[in-house]
Design goal:
By secondary structure, the chain is mainly alpha-helical. Helix content is about 75%, strand content about 0%. The chain is built from 8 helices and no strands. Helix 3 runs antiparallel to helix 4, helix 4 packs antiparallel against helix 5 and helix 5 packs antiparallel against helix 6. The longest helix is centred in the first third of the chain and has 43 residues.
Length: about 190
């Protein structure tokens, strides 16, 4: 009797595992279909047309539902980042910022975390015109991910936040100084 009881429990656990795997696969299949239906729209426009907002919203919901249902899945941060990107296309900046923050806070070790912070800084600076908040995000990027490509010239980015021409002049001036130094050095290979 005890053996039958243990077998029943094992069977029940196995059944739950198989059903949950099938549900994940089914959800991923639905997401793939929604992605395919929006691919052509997103590749041709920087904004979502009103007739495509329903499809886009469905994909955003599918992305966030997946991340909530499977928070430990390696696709969770990617789907949240993609949902944020779609919210940016829809010009729903508060929702996009919330999703970007979720990626960077909940998945700090994921390769998309620094990109989420950099994107949030860009939205604050260029769209929301919140220079202080943009500088906060840039400082966060500097502290947490100093070797990330988005952190190149991070001190100048912070200094010239909301001043793109000042930043460009600073970078150009720095490059000119480096070129001058290179020109002054003797070239041993020419003789």
């Amino acid at each position: 009797m005890k053996l039958l009881n243990n077998f029943s429990i094992l069977f029940f656990v196995l059944l739950i595992f198989l059903v949950s795997c099938d549900k994940r696969k089914q959800t991923l299949g639905e997401i793939t279909l929604l992605q395919k239906s929006l691919d052509s729209v997103l590749s041709t426009s920087a904004q979502i047309a009103p007739e495509n907002k329903t499809q886009t919203t469905e994909l955003i919901i599918a992305y966030t539902d997946f991340a909530n249902e499977y928070p430990e899945d390696s696709l969770a941060p990617k789907f949240l980042f993609e949902a944020a990107r779609l919210r940016l296309f829809m010009q729903d900046y508060p929702s996009a910022m919330q999703l970007l923050n979720t990626v960077s806070e909940k998945y700090p070790d994921d390769m998309l975390a620094p990109s989420a912070i950099a994107t949030a800084a860009g939205v604050c600076e260029n769209v929301l015109k919140d220079c202080d908040k943009a500088a906060e995000y840039l400082m966060q990027l500097k502290e947490k991910y100093p070797d990330h490509p988005a952190a190149v010239n991070i001190d100048m980015q912070i200094e010239y936040v909301c001043d793109p021409s000042g930043y460009l002049n600073a970078v150009t001036g720095r490059l000119s100084e480096e070129d001058s130094l290179l020109m002054e050095q003797p070239n041993d290979s020419i003789q």
